[in-house]
Amino acid sequence: MGALDRFLDWLRAGYPAGVPEQDYVPLFALLRRRLTEEEIADLGKELVVKGMIPADRVDIGVGILSRTDEVPSPTEMHRVGEVLRGAGWDIEDLDGPTDDSVPDQERDV
User: Could you tell me which of 29, 57, 85, 89 has the fewest CB atoms within 10 Å of its CB?
Assistant: First the structure.
């Protein structure tokens, strides 16, 4: 059983009468794709191979976007930065707010 099937089973358990058809899309929109540890390691290696170390927010953000097809969240930026720092790379401050519930547009106002 795949992740999507497990998620749908979880939703169905929370909606004993069934998930209303119009609720599926908004429920899926609440989910954020998280990078796996393997994807983070792969991104770190890619940045090193391409000579992009020390990496900046744009380099890391583009790498995350290419893997998730989503705008990088502050939490994901932080996770990647921590792994790179842990490997001894000098990475600029990527530690922004980690509250993913506030859209980026509202943070910048």
Answer: 29
